Amino acid sequence: MEAISVFDIFKIGVGPSSSHxxxxxxxxxxxxxxxxxxxxxxxxxxxxxxxxxxxxxxxxGHGTDIAIMLALSGDDPVSCDTETIxxxxxxxxxxxxxxxxxTHDMAFDAKDDIVFHLFDPxxxxxxxxxxxxxxxxxxxxxxxxxxxxxxxFVVQEGDEVTGPRAATLxxxxxxxxxxxxxCAESGLTFPELVFANERVWRTDEDIRAxxxxxxxxxxxxxxxxxxxxxxxxxxxxVTRRAAQMNHTLLLEQVGPDHVxxxxxxxxxxxxxxxxxxxxxxxxWVSTFALAVNEENAAFGRVVTAPTNGAAGVIPAxxxxxxxxxxxxxxxDEGIVNFxxxxxxxxSFFKKGATISAAMGGCQAEIGVSSAMAAGGLAQVLGGxxxxxxxxxxxxxxxxxxxxxxPIGGLVQVPCIERNTMGAIKAITAAHIALESDPDxxxxxxDAVIRTMWETSQDMMGKYKETSEGGLxxxxxxxxxxx
Length: 482
Known about the structure:
The protein is of the alpha+beta class. It is 51% helix and 11% strand. The protein is globular, with a radius of gyration of 22 Å.
């Protein structure tokens, strides 16, 4: 049984896609580790990356080639300078050279050394397959195949589950039913159960600090997105809207002295001063979600939650909790409990279905993130374990069948706006569950997860992140290279 930590679900990284950017980035890093372990890294003369399936069809729009070049150059998505990505990639392309692992120069021509197999069948295990082949001064050739299986998770061909993912947990859960049973037997709340499992990998202090750190990155992302205007890269010329919405809301609610902020804390304090009525909350939640996914589309730093394309839902709902719910229930401990609960729900979908749009359409991204957010919100507003699972089920139930049809292969239209819809559905689902008796529910969380997976398998391939159907087909555009 695979053990998935909350910190596997929530990962700090770079946009625009967890499966097309983060996954290939991590795969390239793993391949370089293979070369180091075999003692040939310093004698590597060429590396070729071949992309298959969805990675080939929408990889340019999602920045797969950019991620691979940055990874081979020794950058990490958690710490790299996102402000200099464009100029660094331009330098690699112009000079046809990169510094492998940041240590020595290697000839690299992006046009020849990153191959998009647009017309070849996908590799057998998953729609997001990539293969690295290296040559060395000795004449040795090394080839490894990887699959980016969604949410930044990477599987190497032939690998078995080992290391931290093979850990034995005190309350191992593969499903909502498992969690409900353990909660009933142990008397623990949903987040207390997850916290007990997290202790297998981290200390109590590290768990809390890590989750609050994730919340901080989410908040900083919302702040940047709410204060950055202009047009998104990629060729669609999509105008960023969050900054203007943020400006208008602050001007209406707290006056002209509060429309400009130098840091995230001052901005969050002013958001909290806003009068909490329905229309205002709706506009703010939409602003929060747009802000994150506009940052994501611009290769900004985001938290995969559980994917990059759906990264705005959970921060927006957390900000709804932090800014607009009763001060009696809002605390740092609440944020920790929200993320513990949401992360565990995300793991149920990964184990029982998929969090990859290339496998399941957008229901696997926005649908899962909405379910996670709904469960987390129900928990921090006083929900029982049954109501937590019920909230997650309600949110996913109303995303079933949602296709992935990004125009131009970019995580922009309709992806950015879908995060606002997922956040609002999550808030609605949580409040419905809190007013309901979960014992009388007709549909369980596990039933909706199973249904989502069956729907994924029935869905035509052109509606799974290939940009070959839906809006992507009906809105013809010319997209420039990123």
